[in-house]
Amino acid sequence: MFINPLDNTKKLQKISSDISSVSISRRTPGLAPRSFFPLPKILLLLLLFNEVFPEKAVSLSNDLSKFADDIAIIAPVYDYEDSAGDEVENMKLWSNENRMSLNMEKTYEMIVRGKVSTPLPDHIPSIKRKEWLKLLSVTMEDIPGKWDKHFEEMMKKASRRMDILRVCKHYGLSTHQLDLLFNSLIVSLFTFAVEVWGGASYNKYVSQIDKFVNRAYRNGYTSNRSDFKATISNRDKKLWSRIINDDKNALRNLLPSNLNRPLRRRGHDFELPIVKTERFKNAFINKCLFNFI
Q1: Which of 193, 195, 200 is CA-nearest to residue 279?
Q2: How far is it, in rounded angstroms, from Cα 72 to Cα 60?
Q3: Per-residue model confidence as pLDDT tens digits over 83-138
Q4: CA dist., res. 195 & res. 207, Å (int)
Q5: Where do the structural domains in the chain lie, given as residue ranges?
Q6: pTM over the 0.85 mark
């Protein structure tokens, strides 16, 4: 019997004799947990790993996620509870029992927080604290909605790739060929994981992409102008459609409860969250709930 790995909220890929890194993220209540989508190469290893991966976290509010040889731990911090340290010890115990080694030199902690004056939690012994972490090529920062480092790295990489198009244009590639090259090298870079950071401020972040692409259009490297707001909306709509039309989708558990609305038909029947900040409304799930109702 084949088991779809995406049916399980713990998405696992393979057994590794050396777990290269562990990311520990403490977050404020209400911040949506991260989700990963690996596909196993060998089903037998996936089933075996399900047996040895910790069945549950120390606290019900904590989240454990596995991708290849990386583990992410998300632990909310309350005035009355901070279980991040206990969760790390639990992970160390699990790895020792299963003859795996944790590389503590590549293990980091990041405190996800808003604009609050509350003192930060104590350091977890032997773990470095950072203001950013890179997860699946997306640079997350400790303040939600802040994407300075991610956009800085992305725009630098796009600028370096433009050198390839300059050389190709110099040697006489056609407009169609340049379009294909621009889409594969530049556009793919901008649209990668756009559902994660697509709620970023347009004036501060997203407008950089429009300016970059429109400058390339004026210089003849692409025949298409940029409207990245529309690109974000289209990508959001495609992923949203997959989520609501598939009960087994890995992101389905992030949706709120359904409401009975017999009076008029809507795009969906999910309960709308109470919004207190624009940043909260621009998170992917909340954005889709309001935009596609």
Answers
A1: 200
A2: 16
A3: 888 888 888 888 888 888 888 888 888 888 877 777 888 888 888 889 998 888 89
A4: 16
A5: 19-144, 145-292
A6: no
